[in-house]
Amino acid sequence: RNISQRQDYTGTITVDTDGTVRMSGTFTQLGTSTVYKWHSEKTVKTTQSSVQPASNPTTGGTYNLRGDWNHEGNGHKTKLVVAEQNGDKFSGTMHGNPLINGKINGNTVTFTRNISQRQDYTGTITVDTDGTVRMSGTFTQLGTSTVYKWHSEKVEKQKN
Fold this sequence. Notes:
mainly beta, eight-stranded antiparallel β-barrel
């Protein structure tokens, strides 16, 4: 099928204990504000994944997000700072504005940039085998139905 409309995908990769690789998420298509769901399963089993969600034992099974992040949202680069974290809840700043309602659930992260055009973020946390912690996903902005992409990388690597 020849599609001239760009499609932007975001999602989560999981590896079951039997090695089955599954991916699922959402995508948008240029020219429409509809958010579609997608999923895929790798039929050939694997025993390793180079990128896996991982827990941080210092925070009771929850990722340690505290610190500075290099953040890009809808093409705009800035610093995201997680200043406080208590278990699965966190807060900080982004673009110098309050970052509120931060929540971690498994490897899913949600937070809000508290500005007049409120921005609600949702995404996935991953930890590379070298300890690099990343978050990526989508966000919406008050007053528009557009779904924007974002990603962040923590400046300091996770120590196990």
